[in-house]
Specification:
Shape: globular
CATH architecture: Up-down Bundle
Number of domains: 1
Number of strands: 0
Order of helices and strands: HHHHHHHHHHHHHHHHHH
Distance between the termini: 36 Å
CATH superfamily: Amino acid/polyamine transporter I
CATH class: Mainly Alpha
CATH topology: Amino acid/polyamine transporter I
Number of helices: 18
Largest sheet: none
Structural class: mainly alpha
């Protein structure tokens, strides 16, 4: 196959695979739910140690790169300045990485773990502290180390070695010959499918939360199929309109607006609640997170006795981050020209982790303080998308804050899917940094259709499982990319 024909064939195969899954989700959502959920559970049961080991190894590697002698290396020529300002850079990587997920789980996860802790007694202060630490673990260093290493590998090979932004580029650069090219082509295709399924899960999750917010705050029927379809259509229209613009316009400005509104929303909740108590919980969460980090990373001690919970929560999260790694990796690599490796790791791993910890302390801590009767926790367990709005209804200005939350979820989701459509366009056009608008538009529509099945099913476990389908094989690709990077960076001067 000629080189210029490969992206077209890859695009056709990926679209066909996504079309089959989307059709099953629309026509037989129960079949999709049963097949995907059971399949993912079987893989986790057999390979839990491998996924945990890969995730923890990437965190160790990120620390080594930041603290070691390679940290001074620049992802560009020595005299080349960064392409984006630091604030715009951080806004884009954070909004693309997990903004909509933090809105979904900011209240739901801490109150769920407080009401049903994996270890200890429910409803106690110890359970509440453990709940915040668990949320920090799931959304903290491990998650951003996965993103950071995936992005750093592609950025280093592109800016320092002159390769394209394809997931298989590092493998092509190290593995020569026909076998290397075949493995790299397979890595590109797996990366496309991982992005599509991972982002489709987030489309489903965000649409469910928007629907719940409209129902809670404005009395719209929450189980309306027409409402779900209307939300999806509006989302597709919004992010495809942004996708056809240039990177330094649509995504950049959307990301900046996202972060500004998110910070304002969090500060509003901090001001409406007990500010001193929230900041105290944040301070304690640093200690609790540090104590939790090693035993949960290795599934030792009491965590070995709660394996089903670890599979359902911790490993599901870690694999979800791997599902998003090819998307966030390509996108963050594209916007990171001119940064040193040390600056890159600190900005991509530490800064978002600190923000996530503050986010959970404010939202989760506020919900816990307001939930004396356990109603918010019961809502989170029964209907996670509704938990945020159940908490907001107990605060002053509930209508205003609920409307702001709906808008914020919508903006985060538009930014994430816009970024994903851009990355999918890059990969399926052979690695070009400026894919044609038609390719981005096509992927925007496909991502919306993939997310429709989970939305219509209304089941969060299906949303999670769909997101994990592409991540499981991409874990092998991520390992190969990382090995290629370590080989090359130790060899290069």
């Amino acid at each position: 196959m000629a080189a210029d024909e490969a992206p077209t064939a890859q695009f056709a195969v990926a679209i066909a695979a996504c079309g089959v899954v989307a059709a099953i989700g629309l026509l037989a959502p129960d079949l999709l739910a049963h097949t995907v959920v059971d399949g993912v559970a079987a893989v986790l049961g057999a390979m839990d140690w491998a996924f945990m080991a890969v995730s923890s190894a990437l965190l160790v590697l990120a620390g080594w790169l930041a603290l070691g002698r390679h940290g001074r290396r620049r992802l560009a020529r020595d005299d080349e300045p960064p392409e984006f300002s630091t604030f715009s850079w951080l806004s884009m990587l954070f909004a693309a990485g997990m903004g909509s997920g933090l809105m979904f789980w900011g209240v739901a996860e801490p109150v769920t773990h407080t009401a049903a802790p994996p270890l200890g007694e429910a409803g106690t202060e110890a359970a509440a502290r453990q709940a915040l630490a668990l949320a920090d673990f799931h959304w903290g260093l491990h998650a951003w180390a996965i993103y950071g290493v995936a992005a750093l590998v592609l950025a280093y090979f592109h800016f320092c070695r002159g390769t394209d932004y394809l997931p298989g580029a590092p493998i092509r650069a190290v593995l020569f010959g026909r076998g290397g090219r075949a493995v790299a082509a397979g890595a590109d295709l797996i990366g496309v499918l991982a992005i599509a399924f991972g982002v489709a899960g987030s489309v489903g999750m965000g649409a469910l939360q928007i629907r719940s917010g409209l129902s809670s705050a404005f009395g719209v029927p929450g189980d309306s199929v027409a409402l779900s379809i209307g939300i999806l259509v509006l989302l597709i229209a919004a992010y495809t309109a942004s996708a056809v613009t240039k990177l330094d316009r649509g995504i950049k400005w959307l990301s900046t607006i996202n972060i500004v509104v998110a910070i304002a929303f969090m500060l509003l909740l901090l001001a409406l609640g007990d500010t001193a108590a929230r900041l105290g919980e944040l301070a304690r969460s640093f200690v609790d997170y540090a104590l939790l980090l090693v035993p949960l990373s290795s599934m030792t001690g009491p965590w070995a006795d709660v394996t089903p919970w670890v599979h359902e929560w911790t490993l599901a999260y870690l694999i979800w981050w791997i599902a998003w790694a090819p998307f966030v990796g390509v996108f963050v690599a594209r916007i990171s020209r001119g940064r040193t490796i040390r600056e890159f790791v600190v900005a991509v791993v530490l800064v978002p982790t600190l923000f996530s910890m503050l986010w959970f302390a404010v939202l989760g801590g506020t919900a816990g303080a307001l939930d004396a009767d356990g109603t918010i926790a019961a809502t989170a367990i029964a209907d996670p998308p509704l938990a945020l709005f159940a908490m907001l209804q107990r605060l002053p200005w509930a209508a205003v804050s609920s409307a702001a939350a709906v808008v914020l979820v919508f903006l985060f989701l538009v930014t994430s899917v816009d970024s994903a459509a851009y990355v999918l366009g890059v990969i399926t056009t052979g690695g070009t940094p400026n894919p044609p608008a038609s390719r981005k538009l096509a992927w925007g529509v496909v991502l919306g259709l993939l997310g429709a099945g989970p939305v219509l099913s209304g089941r969060v476990d299906v949303v999670r499982a769909v997101a994990l389908v592409g991540a499981i094989p991409f874990t092998v690709v991520l390992v190969l990319q990382t090995v290629a990077f370590v080989v090359v960076i130790r060899r290069d001067r």
